[in-house]
Amino acid sequence: MLSTRALSASKQLSRKVSVLGAVRAKHTVPDLDYDYNELEPVISAKIMQLHHDKHHATYVANLNAAEEKLQEAQAKNNVAAQVAVQPAINFNGGGHVNHSIFWKNLIGEKNGGGHLHDGALKTAIEQQYGSLDSLTKAVNGKTAGIFGSGWGWLTFNKALGHLDVIATANQDMPSSVGHVPLLGVDAWEHAYYLDYNNVKAEYFKNIWRVINWKDVAKRYDNAVAEHKASKN
């Protein structure tokens, strides 16, 4: 089986487009740090390939198209067209950002998936939630309560200066409500249906086996550092 690096190498080329004389870089689908089958049996290779190469790629393509329309509208000083394209930018931009975080949040069990190491994040989780098990229940409960499609998140709440558990609808980003995303659980059907059918609770339960806590901890450390710097 070819690695995802080889399969998606062509997507990683930084392409440029010219729109009314201006040049900007197009968004691209980020490469995975692992092969499609590394997350099995929690998430199948088939889902990973479809999710990464089809669904995420569609968000990226639509975001690039929407930004080109926006740039054209700005060049023509067409305010109505600028307003009209904004929902597409928000939705597809959110899809791109949320999935880019999601891929980094995952890693195979054989490579450390599911293991929370000692450190600032573990201490914060235990202080606020009592244990990792209690945190997972809080995230799963919030995620299961999503009506329709969306995301469950462990975040850093910038206003309160500590961890928080929230859910966002569709492809809304935690940053839109003042939160720094640390860990996202994709609750869209395309993330689990081929493996779990309509039993999404099993998907929410099993995904913790492949969480890359090193990545989550790094995001937490960065969020705390930025928060402290903003207070000085």
TrEMBL record:
Membrane-spanning segments: none
Catalytic reactions on record: 2 superoxide + 2 H(+) = H2O2 + O2
Family matches, as InterPro entries: Fe/Mn_Superoxide_Dismutase (IPR050265), Mn/Fe_SOD (IPR001189), Mn/Fe_SOD_BS (IPR019833), Mn/Fe_SOD_C (IPR019832), Mn/Fe_SOD_N (IPR019831), Mn/Fe_SOD_N_sf (IPR036324), SOD_C_sf (IPR036314)
Listed GO CC annotations: mitochondrion
Domain of life from the UniProt record: Eukaryota
Binding site for Mn(2+): H51, H99, D186, H190
The entry's keywords: Antioxidant, Coiled coil, Manganese, Metal-binding, Oxidoreductase
Entry's Gene Ontology molecular function annotations: manganese ion binding; superoxide dismutase activity
Coiled-coil residues: 56-83
Domain Manganese/iron superoxide dismutase N-terminal: 26-106
Name of the protein this chain belongs to: Superoxide dismutase
